[in-house]
Amino acid sequence: MKFLPPPLLAILCGFMAWGLSSSVPTLIFEAPSQSAFTAGFAVLGLVIDVLAIIAFWQAKTTLSPFHPENARALVTGGIYQYSRNPMYLGLLCYLIAWTYHLAHPFAAFGPVAFVMLMNTGQIKREEAALLAHFGDDYREYLGRVRRWI
Question: Residue 78's domain spans which residues?
Fold first, then answer.
């Protein structure tokens, strides 16, 4: 079964957050340091994604989330020692920034939907493929590093 590319799924969840927040505009809130918080999470997402991509390039392995079986190396160093899915964590940070920018409680459903869809669809499929490909090394990594953070 094919899944949406994770960045496209994040964009769709962002649109969902915007749509939900637009449905009841009276619930919009203003928070102190809203712009700083939004910018901080967006920058955090960018830093996490860049570190994750650099780790993959250094290992000379595939970035494709649709063909994890083509991986030439199991990347466990750098940011991957803290999260098994830092690229997805970076996307989640962008969604959290967007949610805070929208300043509406219903917008929080966007990041929640993203995590649920990624866990049940993309990540479980990737984990099964990597387990079949790397065996005990990946099993040990699963036990040592959390899925998100």
Answer: 33-144
